[in-house]
Amino acid sequence: MIKKEQKTEVEPTQEYNVTSLLESATMFKLFLFLFCTSFALSVWGQGEANVWYFGFGAGLDFNTAPPTALTNGMLSTDEGCSTICDADGNLLFYSNGEDVYNRNHQIMQNGTGLAGHFSSTQSALIVPKPLSNHLYYIFTTGAEAGFSGAFNGLNYSIVDMTQDDGKGAVIEKNVPLIGYTTEKQTAIRHSNGRDIWIVTHLFESDAFYSFLLSCEGLQTQPVISRVGKPHIDPNVGCCERISTLGCMKSSPDNQKIAVVWSELKTYDPQAGTVIGDWHLELFEFDNSSGKLSPPDFSVSYGDNSSNNQSYGICFSPDNTKLYQAVYQGFPANKIFQYDLTAEDIPASRALIVEESIKAFGTMEIGPDGKIYIARTNGHKYLSVLHQPNLLGTACAYEKDGISLAGINSTWGLPNILYDYSFKPVFDFFSSDTTICENETLSLEMDTLNADHYLWNDGSIFSNLDIEEAGLYWLEISSENCGQGRDSIYVAGENCDCKVIFPNVFSPNADGNNDVFEPVRAFCEYEKYDLKVFSRWGEVVFATNDQHQSWDGYFKGKKSQVGTYLFYLSYQIPGNDKVEQVLGDVALVR
Q1: Structural domain boundaries in the chain
Q2: 280 - beta bridge partners?
Q3: What residues contact residue 263 under an 8 Å CB cut-off, 6+ apart?
Q4: In 10 A of CB 512, how many CB atoms?
């Protein structure tokens, strides 16, 4: 990490022809392409999610295209489950939150009696311990906040794959983290590229709990975010604790969390009628701090005539769409799509499909970029959204999208981490950088808490202040996270006319970093052409005035939190060379 004094931001003006810009800058065109596609190549760039087991012995193998139906699974579960492979897509083990099966489809050593439940929405969640090649955590949630089954809340167990001749064994079991949670849990990669957040929601509360898993182990002190509506027990004499049900999902870019649940309103035992509402909320997630912001939008539905419920939720691979499975009216089973790029997201809701039988369960992104949808009541197919990044019915829904070879689907599909790539411990510097004359630069590794540090000049602290150009290296060691060495080359230069941009800005009117603009711009340039692009290549700000900055708005609306690409060409007075700067900046609130 390189620490310098920083400012921030930029602002929209006129429309630009992106095509002509790209024609004049081939390198920029390639950079923009890589920038945009990197957001959609997370889970399907790795093999850890290539095999799924779920339902009553059902499975899919995504190591083939199209995926192959598997009939050798040993699960017998109504709802939540999880599966993990190695990076090459070879099965390691799978679980319904109660039992753990090894790659030979046998009960793993000490692999029974875990604290999940076969009828918990997201009963199991398997994630690798960061920087370990053999330790895995299985997080489990009990059913109905612990009222069904022996366990409640969020617990974890640890699997060591070096045990039992490489077939693995559970070496720690049912360590409690927090009780009285809903049946919801999701995993999100930390901004440092290594650690993993595990997020759940408390029952009869508005509190989200985020637990950080790092190479040093699991931090049992959670980050608590009290945002959104409380998930409450209706207490109407029927079907109590139904609001514990329903999925929580993170977005593939690790920036958002969506959650659905249902709330009963009234119950008439004489008529046998139940009236209820479903709820959907979307939150920004800060994957540096583990905090959730107040909801981007909150939608509820109830018509005072039927039991309206919602269970499945899923983002599109490119993070621009959100899909929700609901039960309401007739035909009862529906899937809605929300356009997350729309100015009014709730108003963008589009009905993708409606059917009268076989309710929709969990929705999950496959390694092939399609969304697979579980079907209840013994359906022997999964439904599929073949083009989930596209708007409306162009998402290409297919009811019997893939056969399960005669095996029954139920409510659940595997709960997975979308980003299995991680930053190794020996790669803790950013790219080479520069130092200006008469300036001090602080070199510091990122957030890994090492036990020992050794710089090339003999310093033993985590950071090093330098005043001269040169090659610098740092060796670190940690009992739990290993050891490594990384180097960085710092070039010297005269910076009077150099344009330097920050990598983050926060247009929240607090007086700090409220705009995106150059940190250093001491010269009046002969040419100056700055453009800022969304991840989809749309120009959100452009200017030829070096004194004009972006305030984070586009077409009079606040731009979405996220990463933006910028391209600047400028010419220093008296110099015929046109300088070019390519980079990205994170907009935060």
Answers
A1: 2-39+423-587, 43-403
A2: 260, 299
A3: 232, 234, 242, 243, 276, 277, 278, 279
A4: 11
Question: Which tokens go with 31?
Answer: 């950079």
Which two tokens mark 493?
């230069």
pLDDT digits (tens, 9 = 90+) for 42-60: 444 479 999 999 999 999 9
Q: Are strands 441-444 and 504-505 parallel, antiparallel or unpaired?
A: unpaired
For residues 158 and 168, give the distance between their C-alpha atoms in angstroms, rounded to a whole number.
10
Nearest to 43 by CA among 259, 249, 350: 249
Which tokens in the block code for residue 319?
Answer: 């993070």
| Structure token pair of residue 198 | 């595990």
Looking at the domain that runs over 43-403, which CATH code has it been given?
2.130.10
Q: In 79-222, which ranges are E strands?
A: 82-85, 91-95, 100-102, 124-128, 135-141, 154-160, 169-178, 181-189, 196-202, 205-214, 217-218
- Residue 531, token pair as written in the block: 């453009």
Query: What pTM was estimated for this model as a whole?
Result: 0.75
Strand, helix or coil at 347?
Answer: helix
Residue of 44, 119, 129, 415 lying closest to 248 (CA atoms)? 415
Pairing of strands 100-102, 124-128: unpaired
Number of Cβ within a 10 Å radius of residue 32: 21
Three-state secondary structure call for residue 345? coil
The whole-angstrom separation of Cα 386 and Cα 389 is: 9
272, 241, 405, 253: which is closest to 320 by C-alpha? 253
Q: Which two tokens stand for residue 135?
A: 């330790």
Residue type, 404: L
Which of these, 111, 110, 79, 81, lies nearest to 97 by C-alpha position? 81
pLDDT tens, 295-348? Answer: 999 998 987 777 788 999 999 999 999 999 998 877 789 999 999 999 999 999
The token pair at 293 is 């912001």
Structure letter (DSSP) for residue 520: B
